[in-house]
Amino acid sequence: MNKKQQVTALLKAIETGATEPVATINANKYIQHNLNVEDGLAGFGKLLQQLPPKSARVNTVRVFQDGNFVFAHTEYNFFGPKIGFDIFRFEDGKIVEHWDNLQTTAEPNPSKHTMTDGTTQTVDLDKTEANKTLVKSFVDDILVNGRMEKLAGYFNGDSYIQHNPLIPDQLSGLGKALEAMAKQGITMKYDKIHTVLGEGNFVLVVSEGHLGGRHSSFYDLFRVENGKIAEHWDTIEEIPAKEGWKNNNGKFGFTY
């Protein structure tokens, strides 16, 4: 199996209990960045043992590869229904590091889109680096630095498909949603981009910031079409206080 197939099989093993896919993990060097899970392969196993029997469900909707990294977009029932992005780093053919971002599954948004529906087809592989540059600039300009005068330039008119549970389609929908949040005193601030991964027309940006004053991790997946942002999915997860961490690796730590 290729790396994407290995990751899909490993995630599915959470549901099926299959042991063979776990051999993809380097048991001597597995760095865990989910702060609710103890480090190493033993920590992963301990978490699975805490699941109610036959309760887990795993449906990986999208999976991509960028060099030694594979990232997946998955529907879970894992201590309750969740949508997750998982990132795995491979080294010498084995998984040695894992990051994720999980959010409780929400109802369809005002435009009737779920958190995972939409196209899954990867195209424009020759444009991967250009698309990563475009999306990183968008997040840096708009979400980190608030240069809203540049917003329209990243989109093809008002055409924009949105999968965030609270925000409708179209660029105007995004503007109205942000305005409504501001009126409710809900602030969203991106402080730092930690990594940008992509394959073809899909780009994932991992960022750190605050939502409603709470320290949060933002995973944003964008689909690019003809040099413009066409579609967006995301998960937002609150980062627990350090005294509650079950490992000391931090939520991010992308150094490769």
TrEMBL record:
Pfam families in alphabetical order: SnoaL_2
Q: What is the source species?
A: Niastella caeni
Boundaries of every SnoaL-like domain copy: 7-98, 136-232
Q: What is this protein called?
A: SnoaL-like domain-containing protein
Q: Name one GO biological process term.
A: polyketide metabolic process
* InterPro entries recorded: Cyclase_SnoaL-like, NTF2-like_dom_sf, SnoaL-like
